[in-house]
Amino acid sequence: MDKLIDLGPEFWTAAGETLYMVFFTMLFGGLAGLVLGIGLYVTRTGGLLPNVVVNNVLNVLINFFRPIPFIIFIAAVQPLTRAVIGIGIGTNAAVFALSLAASFAIGRIVEQNLLTVKPGVIEAARSMGAGPWRILTTVVIGEALGPLILGYTFIIVAVIDMSAMAGFLGGGGLGYFAQLYGYRQFEPIVTWAAVLLIIVFVQIVQYLGNWLARKVLRR
Amino acid sequence: MAIVSLANVSKSYPSPERGAPRIVAVDDVSLEIEAGEVTGIIGYSGAGKSTLVRLINALEPATDGTVTIDGRAITGLPERELRAVRLGIGMIFQQFNLFEAKTVAQNVAYPLKVAGWGKAEITARVQELLDFVGLADKARAYPDQLSGGQKQRVGIARALATRPRILLADEATSALDPETTQEVLALLKRVNEEYGVTMVVITHEMDVIQSIATKVAVMDGGRVIEQGDVFDVFSDPQHASSRKFVSTVVQGVPSPAELAVLRERHAGRIATFSFRDGDAAQARVFVELAQAGLEFELVYGGINDIRGRAFGHLTLAIRGEEAAIDRALARIGELVAVTEPPIGDGAVGDGAVGGGAVGDGAVGDGAQDGEAR
Ligand SMILES: Nc1ncnc2c1ncn2[C@@H]1O[C@H](COP(=O)(O)OP(=O)(O)OP(=O)(O)O)[C@@H](O)[C@H]1O
Ligand SMILES: [Mg+2]
């Protein structure tokens, strides 16, 4: 316990790093995933802007990267990380790898949630003379907002989990903290403290997500 | 001049299997719809009714032929211009297709936003429309808080928002109970009469045809096999296939299963006599049969009323000498349409006859007092 109190400053720094990584991953990866998912959705056969070539390219891209375990993914994209961020390690490098990996998963989740919008509703909008972009932005996204929020909530929780592995890139965060000060130094209380805080984060995110989705869905 | 005109229009889809022939949904249809008319489109499932209607507002492009709206050929127009055409054609649906995430008022406002109306104009128009359909108090409700009938009224308000001259309805009342159907039909009738909106209504319900349609087109296998005045098509269908379809929706024509039961219960030859519009022939039929010394009983029947004109069908079981029956039926055939359904047509469904034909003026099969007078 004393050990944990001694490590107080490091603990809170690690918590801050986790929040930093999750926030920026959701910002960049979340946006990229939204674009990917919308791209998949609109270009599919029978979609708003059908385009077989684009659809196939996006599908292959996602199917190629998504199954790679994140721990391997981090190492594999390191050259790219270095090229883009300028450095292969550290919190920002971790955010880059996390964003990239998350965007593929988010793309699929966005696509799946947009597909829950009933075709009849889109047909109704078309019959009123609305064009594809207007339908996408004013009908499809609104109709799918509830499930989209739940999908993003699910992803945030997954990113919190993934961010624990960022320690391998020297990205810091609670996962790294638990490993460094808890596991390696045989201080289970330190490990548990980190785990506990991660659980608290997850609970808060899930609670907010559910609340927001319920508000949107009015039930 | 017709407000909607289809000239040799076809629509086919690529077959799901490689090498197989294309699926022809609409096959060489020519149809003229006059302004102010309510045209019913009827036919079996898969006949191509929905596809035909979607060709009118270009939700589906025709593969062949020309669709003309208000004198302007729309076939082959670029998508951007088709959107402008669609603003002038409203559409309502079986499943209502309301935007679930928008309020009633926002649903009705949507087409107006698409059409580029100003905010103040939209507010006023939405209010006017909600008053018209009787849902002013539901403006802020969401669709999942409404009953089916209310949802369809919102659908109608939304479809009429931009003051289109044409309204398309694809089975608009099929998901509603009979009472609600009547309410919605009454509303559609007002839309037609007060605003002169031309309507094309797909339906398989006699109710809909009876209460609002002025013209009807019968579809089968992608073709329009018969079209014309509702009364003419229903009281005297010309085409074998439309006769078959019409007999399933009008009052008083026994189905094959009902015929089998009638044959079991009643001795003699079964013949159906079709009367139109109060011609005096009904009495003559009975007189002819009596004079021929034949015994007969009324076993099935019903009267249909279309816009104040009636037609009906009576099915009799006739007993007597075969040759005498033949002679009598031949003489009667000069007065009214006589059909003798072939024997062995359809299986016996238990209790299929039920109470006989229901509906106004219907004569149940229990009415066995049609003995010769
Ligand atoms: N997008 C499509 N792709 C392939 N085939 C289609 C498509 N749309 C319709 N069809 C086919 O065209 C034919 C006519 O369909 P349509 O929906 O117009 O019939 P319908 O008369 O409206 O039937 P229902 O009464 O069941 O609604 C059917 O055989 C259907 O399978
Ligand atoms: Mg249909």
From TrEMBL, chain A:
The ABC transmembrane type-1 domain, residue ranges: 15-209
Sequence similarity: Belongs to the binding-protein-dependent transport system permease family.
Transmembrane among keywords: yes
Tree of life domain: Bacteria
Cellular compartment(s): Cell membrane
UniProt xrefs under PANTHER family: ABC TRANSPORTER PERMEASE, TRANSPORTER, PERMEASE PROTEIN, PUTATIVE-RELATED
Protein name as it appears in the record: ABC transporter permease
Any Pfam family the entry gives: BPD_transp_1
Keywords assigned: Cell membrane, Membrane, Transmembrane, Transmembrane helix, Transport
Membrane topology (UniProt): Multi-pass membrane protein
From TrEMBL, chain B:
Keyword Membrane appears in the UniProt entry: yes
Domain ABC transporter residues, every copy: 4-246
Gene Ontology MF terms in the entry: ATP binding
Keyword entries, A-Z: Amino-acid transport, ATP-binding, Cell membrane, Membrane, Nucleotide-binding, Translocase, Transport
InterPro entries (UniProt xref): AAA+_ATPase, ABC_transporter-like_ATP-bd, ABC_transporter-like_CS, ACT-like_dom_sf, MetN_ABC, MetN_ABC_transporter-like, NIL_domain, P-loop_NTPase
Source organism, top-level taxon: Bacteria
Chain segments annotated as transmembrane: none
Entry-linked SMART domains: AAA, NIL
Matches recorded under Pfam families: ABC_tran, NIL
Protein name per its UniProtKB record: Methionine ABC transporter ATP-binding protein
